[in-house]
Amino acid sequence: MDLIREADRIAAWVRSRRDAGVSVALVPTMGALHEGHRSLIDRARTEADAVVVSIFVNPLQFAPGEDLARYPRDEAGDLERCREAGVDAVWGPTVEEMYPSGSDLPAPDPGPVGDTFEGAARPGHFAGVLRAVHRLLTAVGPDVACFGEKDAQQLFLVRRMVGDEAMPVRIVACPTVREPDGLALSSRNAYLSTEEREQAACSFLALSEAAVRSRAGEEDPAVLVAAMAREIGATPLARPDYIAVVDDATFAPVVRVGPGARAIVAVRFPSARLIDNLSLPLPA
Ligand code: AMP
Asked: Has this prediction a pTM greater than 0.85?
């Protein structure tokens, strides 16, 4: 497995493969790799001949006062996990390599959806995400890039950017990997105390409750949101940040639950803010 720091070297690495007819998939990450990332790598393997993982804690997507300084970092462990997973190359740029000073890299506009939900809670977050993803996609130049449904709003905005700019890459959405109690794997789960961890599946329980009601024919998003709020409200250490049902095609709240409806939640625990979502099934 090759570990590459420089943008021009990863570009050349990918170009040489693609020129030889070898397709390349990129899995962008911020490191602290877990089984969720592993599932993206495994999927990437089925989508292309060679897999590149990028590891970059993107400072631009952290709002002032957020957890940039304490975000978990474990490069040696991450490289070991990538090696085990059969990754062909890791791109681990420095901040200067990612955003060279004096250069004028594109700053894609997340638009109004970028100011809702995660964007409302984290000002500037999606502008930072899109700058990083645009840079990763153009520097690496993969055929395919894999993203997790866990970050549904990010996935929506990345897909829209790639579509708007007609970027020559296929975006693949990968299902959320969960702990046995339903908690979605996240690098930030490491912040949770034992007591918080015991309660952290409340988001998944709330989403599951919405899914059951949707399956049973409930079409009013307000009823689903109220049911989710009750579940999270009954969890002593959890404070809901937002709870909504949105349309996958627009990421706007739905007025009626139908095809493409997705329940989304963000919950604050004293030590961590966690997000999760679930696509809502229609009546069978
Ligand atoms: P991160 O390192 O948190 O920026 O995540 C890198 C990629 O992994 C993103 O596309 C995430 O959506 C995805 N991801 C994070 N957690 C999970 C999970 N539990 N299941 C599947 N994908 C995930």
From this structure: yes
